[in-house]
Records
---
Amino acid sequence: LRPASDSTAVPAWVTAGRVTHTIDADAMLETGVHPLGKVRECAASLKNGELVCLNSSFRPEPLLDAMARGGFSVCCVPNQSGAHVTYISRGTSA
């Protein structure tokens, strides 16, 4: 699947109760660690329907592309503060 465009519409497969991992990209980058490795590690452990939630102050385009190429479903939406919330799933119910 291609990464979702910036939109306030969240797909039906994104449900807060399915989030098993939450990652703060900004905090990781402040320590000099790129979040892609952690996202891949968490995503690899997902069961169908489970989600990784990545919070960032920016739209993480390279990460979105990498995860989509890896066969994951991805959705990135801006939140009320202008930051972005990215959801990654191994499988979707949609």
---
Amino acid sequence: MSKIHKPTPELRAQVEKYAAVGLPHDIIGTLVGCCDKTLEKYYPDELAAGTAKGNAQIAGWAFDSARRGNIPMRIFLCKVRLGWRE
């Protein structure tokens, strides 16, 4: 018999935090005590928000690095954001 998973505000915050750092769903599920299918059923908003926040932070670091003069990062951002190519 399987136990019933009950989301709490604390678990929701943990799921979002783990998703923000890019952990796979199966590992997040293990950390919060459920399988990845249950995780996706009960925490879709937290998974999406965490992933978006993590991606935004990484993009911010890349942008700041380019602004500070990192030439390879400037080239990379022009290629991926503006469609530039060699």
---
Amino acid sequence: MRILGLLSAVAVTALLSGPAGAANLTLKFGHVGEPGSLFAPSAEEFARCSNAALGDKAEVQVFGSSQLGNDTELLQKLKLGQVTFALPSSVMSSVAEVFGVFEMPYIIKSRDHMRRVQASIMDSKLQPAVKEKGYRIVGLWENGFRNITNNTRPINKPEDLKGIKLRTPKGTWRVKMFQLYGANPTPMAFSEVFTALQTGVIDGQENPYAQIWSAKFQEVQKYLSITGHVYTPAYLPASDKHFSELPADVQAELNKCAASTQDFVYEEAARLETDLLDKLKAGGIQVNVADKDAFIAASKPVYDEFASSIDGGQELIDTVLKLGEGS
């Protein structure tokens, strides 16, 4: 009986430990990007770097295409400990109002500008804001410069958007911006957009080229208008509580890989901007370059409202604009 007991104990230990060579921790990473999007290689590069550094201590497993939920659901799952990482973008302005500064039209000029903004306000503004909500930002990557597609008409000036039913992410300021331009903005989960465009529930949407191409929106849209109206960062958030409970050496390697992945993401994003625009044109969608000066002029009321309604809003706008001088 004693021998049987020892054998049982060994069997239980082996079961809990998992097969030889298996990682002790599984870290699930969910995002909404389709294959071919910028999100997909971003997440895979982070996983590659992390898994190489961590060995059998932990394994990052990536689940794209909204397999683990949309952005809002993923943020909830982070807190519940059901997911370790997500990759939200615009929706972060609904988590903490300070992120609304990135929703101001044309406020970010370039990736180098974004690096300067990150260095200036990440630790002083962004990180404290999300920690109050139970998160921490492990890395700052990219979604990209956004442009408008629709089935009604080419968009050259803001007034061309009048009456167009336009899908936006779930964020207050994007909705306000397009209402100001005269559109009829409709917040909707990214995974629902293709069908809504196909069936005419909405007329158009706005996203970076990588999201447009990978989601095949060009198959159900006639016009692509290059507006570049908003540059959206992408964030790598985790639950502050659950991340802090990971072994210190695991946290350190994840932080390093999140930082190094930014360079990869920015290089990949720049490449996709050229390659995908060519592919979109070749696919038959009609492309025009919008009058950005007209959009900038029409955007002042959004800045004014952010400055007056958000605590420290004007100071934040001024800081970001100053960091963009010369970009």
---
Amino acid sequence: MKLNPDCIRDILIQCENVITFNNSYYYARGSSSSLAEKYSHDEIIYHIKQAKDAGLISTGPFYDAGESVHITDLTPAGHEFLANARTETVWNKLKSMGIQSLPILIDMARGLSSSYFKSLL
């Protein structure tokens, strides 16, 4: 499957909005969520796995062959990526580059965000 940076960012935003010390984010096929309105189940599960493998989120196991998963938290790297990619100006510039590698996307978000905020000083 082709990497969809918007899906990665939306997963992180959804997690940030839901997860607390006592609350995880539970995603299951057929759930009614803002993610399910925008992306297919396969796309969501694939990108959750990619975010986990990149060290952006912590999850429990994928249940029933990928039918559902608990995302327990954003990692420090996940919080950093989201902070760097939160500004629409930075995010749109990243997307316009057509980056299809998550490690490069994370690195470029860091660099662009730093440059963007330095320009505001």
